[in-house]
Amino acid sequence: MRPQEIIAIKRDGGELSETQIQAFIAGICDGSWADYQISALVMAMFTRGLNERETEMLVREMLNSGELLDFSDISSPKADKHSTGGVGDKTSLIIAPLVAACGVAVPMISGRGLGHTGGTLDKLQSIPGYNVSLSKAEFRTVIEKCGFAMAGQTAEIAPADKKLYALRDATATVPYIPLIVASIMSKKLAEGLDALVLDVKTGNGAFMQTLDDSKKLAEAMVRTGEKFGVRTEAIVSDMSEPLGQYVGNALEVYECIKILRDESEPQMAQTTELSIELAARMLKLTGVCGSLEEAKATALEKLSNGEVLDKFKQNCTDQGGDVSVFDEPEKLLNGKIEQFEIKSDRVGFVGSVDALTIGEAIVEIGGGRALADDKIDNAVGFRCNLKTGDRVQNGESLGTAYCRDRAQFELVSEKLLNAYTISADPVSVPVLVKAVIQ
Ligand code: URA
After folding, report:
1. What is the rounded CA–CA span in Å between residue 15 and residue 42?
2. What pTM, to 2 d.p., does this model score?
3. Of 39, 97, 114, 414, which cross-links 311 as Cys (Cβ 3.0–4.6 Å)?
4. b/e map of 385-424 (b: 16 or more CB within 10 Å)?
């Protein structure tokens, strides 16, 4: 069947058959479908819809378009978590060593930041020497040695998604749940996992902004994971304000190391809470712990007795990184960076800290990417000194901008101040975990 005949079926609201979806994905991979034909079919899917059967076939074909990792010879259970992305979302750096310290292998394939949302690979690369470009053999060796590895996606995993995602990005067809499910799950299901925990963000710093849409996405991904034989759970978590204290690549690694060293500050509490929540679900799903309560207690103990710090140090050595940052985290803040305060001009309570605005300000000063191949500056960022619900005095610092110079600060100072709303009345702290989908 020619591409235009398949496009016409979906354009007219029809249901695609298995053979037609196979032809579409094969055509993306072998280059026989032109970009305009792929884009036309994706737009037809976006406007006419994909049912559950079509979505499942799309996941299967995208997954099988590439290589499937096989860790069946590693005897421990295998688990990973995936976050749909946000501002200051750094939990992977705590979860991977934490879950590995509990005896679960974590083959964590991560991404780079794009737009206002950060990416684990960029954060890791602020550790001097840390290698995120591992070959398949190196990835396996690191997992065998220390229980977890963190690296970028190779060209062999779900190659159809790479092309499709770039075209969706350029044709305004990203925000459609079946296409998001196919994109995320085709990559995660290739990791050879027993269990997967998804963290779907909600709020203005997330790409699913309403709780209702975030729940629908979480439900669709959980159903898909289970259909493919991977025990899957999801939580929907708050992304209306940045997670934890710091935003910016090196600063976020700094926050994680401070937590692992048991030198946490109060504004870092959300980072710990969410990491424990997600890690505990991975421990429960893999059967390493019998209940969520037991898993949370185990995770907390490993975190506070230094085992997780040791695990990350071991992994850092195995991936070529400078392990001294774990003993002297302040080293991560070195470089020609100046700090500038954002001060409140009134007394009251912090009503909100707009995650999207802060994420966009960081992109503007070079800490994130506007385009996929932009270079980034790992050292710049922002520290939230006060968070939603905190009492504030007139002239008190709401946050600290880490900039290269004053000119850079002046570019974003107004934006950063406007990210905060101040209320005369007390404000309640946002609930972090808004829904659980099992
Ligand atoms: N992240 C992905 O990997 N794919 C999507 O479609 C959306 C977010």
Report:
1. 14
2. 0.96
3. 97
4. bbbbbbebeeeebbbbbbbbeeebbeebbebbeebbebee
- In whole angstroms, give the CA distance from residue 98 to residue 106: 10
Question: Per residue in 229-273, pLDDT tens?
Answer: 999 999 999 999 999 999 999 999 999 999 999 999 999 999 999
Contact call for residues 368 and 240 (beta carbons, < 8 A)? no
Residue 44, token pair as written in the block? 């037809």
Task: State the CB neighbour count (10 A cutoff) for residue 287.
Answer: 12
pLDDT digits (tens, 9 = 90+) for 293-348: 999 999 999 999 999 999 999 999 999 999 999 999 999 987 889 999 999 999 99
In the structure encoding, which two tokens stand for residue 70, read together?
A: 């096989």
- Please give the pLDDT value at position 113: 85
d(CA 308, CA 105): 14
Whether 406 has a pLDDT exceeding 80, the answer reads yes
Among this protein's residues, is 187 annotated catalytic?
yes
Strands 348-353 and 195-202, how do they pair?
unpaired
Ligand 1 environment, Cβ below 6 A: 165, 174, 179-180, 183-184
Q: Which listed residue (65, 92, 110, 183) is catalytic?
A: 183
Mean of the per-residue pLDDT values of the chain: 96
DSSP 176: -
Q: How far apart (Å, rounded) are the C-alpha atoms in residues 92 and 332?
A: 18
Ligand 1 mean position, distance from CA 267 (Å):
29
DSSP category for residue 86? -
Q: Where are the beta strands (DSSP E) in 293-372?
A: 338-343, 348-353
82 is catalytic: yes
Q: How far is the CA of 180 from the centre of ligand 1 (A)?
A: 5
> 54 with 46: CB under 8 angstroms?
no
